[in-house]
Amino acid sequence: GAPVHDPAVPGSLHVRAARVLDANWTGTSTVPSRGLYPHQWSWDSAFIAIGLRHISPLRAQTELETLLDAQWADGRIPHIVFNPSVPFDAYFPSPDFWRSSTAGRAAGAPRTVQTSGIVQPPVHALAAWLVHLADPGLSLARGFLARVYPHLAAWHRYLLHRRDLGGGGLASVVHPWEQGMDNSPAWDAPLSRITPAPARSFRRADLAHGAPEDRPTDLDYGRYVRLATEYRDGGYADGTDKGAARRASVEGGGGRRVGGFAVEDPAFNALLIASEHALARIAQELGAPGTARHARAERLTEALIDRLWDPVEGMFFCRDVYGGETRESGALGRDQRFGSSALGSERRSPTGALVPERTVSGLIPLLLPTLPRDITTALVGTLRGPHFSLGDAARLVPSYDLLGEAFDPHRYWRGPAWFNTGWLLERGLRLHGEHADADALREALLETAGTSDFAEYVDPYTGEACGAVGFGWTAALTLDLLH
Ligand code: 9WN
């Protein structure tokens, strides 16, 4: 490639990205950022492994194995695996909030390592397959795929069986941190029904590292804390797990609805589908037929379209599973904007309401190989259109509708562009033959990664760095785009 990208040239993008990953490596895994996020995060590790495989396939395999070592017996992969040598006050919520080894006992939390009790998007099987492909010889010699396969299968089983809270075949998230786009405007309506925990009942650690105007608000945090506390106090039992809910229920009633937040998210489910296809390939590589898994991925794709696709808007939307039950939903009124689209008519369906906010999550299903052609064409049109402006005003795809009422170019997941979502869309564009757009997005991602010093996220118009710099997945996905 160009000298600026050359791994052999000191100061090249490749060398700088590799240096970030070296600096964030702890010996068994990679932190997203030394200051802001000093532990191991689930989907960060998956993206990081995808980049690490280009500089050390062994480290990439170890990254995923370390995460899987902290898997719970019920199959969930926790969103944080805590590093015991980091002081508790370095990050909130810390292990003494989650209390995984006690509160999570019924759900099978590990005894030796402290974790959170919620999950993050299932990018792991996709990552494991890509890591294997980087060095099949090493993978075979270490038995990598054979070792990770049962863990990944249990993880998908957990999501498909314990998290189908809407009953339509898709997985629900029960906390905004699970979907990974913490303060997305898509959560405003479902979160409005949650009573925030009092501000004095917790102490945020993030504001010591990030500018307050770039981070979620205190009101958001009050609600995050309330939801996580209730989930913990219910023994991390899920609504569909009636036995565990009964054992752990503070109210004594079995099968009660756990928590007040359940959302079917397009990106979360698209990543599950992509990972299910990857798991099928892994099964085939191990000598088993992958056909059942490919078929399941197909059924999930149909459920995704059936439940979350809006043909008028040309994108996918979140389904608020408990939405439409009360008249207090924040999404009311804003529905008018969507006129005759499916959003209007479905709002009060018995399995919830679509949330009329356009977020980047609703475009990420573009990475699925078997979407019908009319849907991929519509998604590409929406990406290029005024709400996301690919190849025009915004060089990188914003996390939220540029014309949306809640748009803020610096506030975390309410506008800034992120590199993991950019990477997923680049892959989707290329997969569906949109090479010119994919090339332009790739160039913009690489250039902005370099000029922002591998920022956590950037202003979608100017590329100005926000949040942490030297961010793990930004460096890792830069390496992947360079290869
Ligand atoms: C809460 C680590 C994580 C990412 C998430 C991002 C942010 C945490 C936080 O950082 O969330 O999990 O403290 O804000 O939103 O996507 O995995 O990088």
Give structural notes:
- The longest helix has 20 residues, at 266-285.
- It is globular, with a radius of gyration of 21 Å.
- The protein is mainly α and 483 residues long.
- It is built from 19 helices and eleven strands.
- 43% of the residues lie in helices and 5% in strands.
- Strands 3-4-7-8 form a four-stranded antiparallel beta sheet. The protein has a three-stranded antiparallel beta sheet with strand order 9-10-11.
- Bound molecules: (2R)-2-(alpha-D-glucopyranosyloxy)-3-hydroxypropanoic acid.
- (2R)-2-(alpha-D-glucopyranosyloxy)-3-hydroxypropanoic acid is lined by residues 32, 37, 41, 43-44, 79, 177, 180, 182, 206.
Amount of beta strand: under 5%
Average pLDDT, all residues: 91
Number of strands: 11
- The count of helical stretches stands at 19
The Cα radius of gyration reads 21 Å
Low-confidence stretches: 243-256, 326-337, 344-348
**SSE ordering:** HEHHEHHHHHEHHHHEHHEEEHEHEHHEEH
The major sheet is characterized as: 4 strands, antiparallel
Terminal CA distance reads 9 Å
List the ligand species.
Answer: (2R)-2-(alpha-D-glucopyranosyloxy)-3-hydroxypropanoic acid
Summing up helix and strand content along with how strands pair, one would put the structural category as mainly alpha
Overall 3D form:
globular
* Spatial order of the strands forming the largest sheet: 3-4-7-8
Helix content: 40-55%
